[in-house]
Amino acid sequence: MYQLRIASAGVLALALTAGSALAADMPVKTSNYRAPPVWTWDGFYVGVNGGFSWGRFDTTANAPIFPGATSVSDPKVNIWLGGVQAGANWQINRLAVFGLEGDFQGTVERDSVIGGSPAVTTIGGGATTVTLTNNDTRWRLPWFSTARARLGVLISPVILLYGTGGLAGGRVFFSNSLTTTVT
Q: Is residue 3 within a helix (H) or strand (E), and if so which, with residue range?
């Protein structure tokens, strides 16, 4: 009987040891916790854009042969435009971002005014009167481009308050022809 008790105790010890060994091989459940993303403003970007341009300008053309003879026109330039831009940002530290950006815009902005505003002037104390009977003004902006730098302060990891400055240039065509009558 004494041997049976020792054998029973040995079987029990073996069973407990085997059970704990099997428990060590059980798969571990993973946590659903994920670390928040690390935001950075560093990087290069390219893109396309589209927009609408509207405006008007006033022009006054002087006739150099007849001092005081002028023609006034005010074309309206309302049209769609599109272009491309590219740039890069560098996050200097956790609060500051520096960037460079450039773009090129193509437009079909154009207008013409035919007829305009005729003007009458008197030359030589009333002896000669010049009348502008036709005014043909044409204006066109086929493209423009900008280059600028940006310096910003991060208000939060995803909100950047920034200022920008740079240069802009483009191609502008303007022509004006006047038909005059001298009496």
A: helix 2-24
List the structure tokens of 132. Answer: 């502008």
Which residues are CB-contacts of 173 (< 8 A; sequence separation ≥ 6)? 138, 139, 140, 141, 142
Q: Which long-range contacts (CB under 8 A, 24 or more apart) does 95-99 make?
A: 95/153, 95/154, 96/151, 96/152, 96/153, 96/154, 97/41, 97/150, 97/151, 97/152, 97/153, 97/154, 97/160, 97/162, 98/149, 98/150, 98/151, 98/152, 99/41, 99/149, 99/150, 99/151, 99/152, 99/162
pLDDT tens-place string over residues 96-111 = 999 999 999 998 887 7
Question: Can you give the pTM of this predicted structure?
Answer: 0.60
Residues 6 or more apart whose Cβ sits within 8 Å of residue 161 = 152, 153, 154, 155
CB-based contacts of 42: which residues, under 8 Å, 6+ apart?
A: 89, 90, 91
End-to-end C-alpha distance for the chain, whole angstroms: 148
Q: Give the count of beta carbons closer than 10 Å to the beta carbon of residue 89.
A: 20
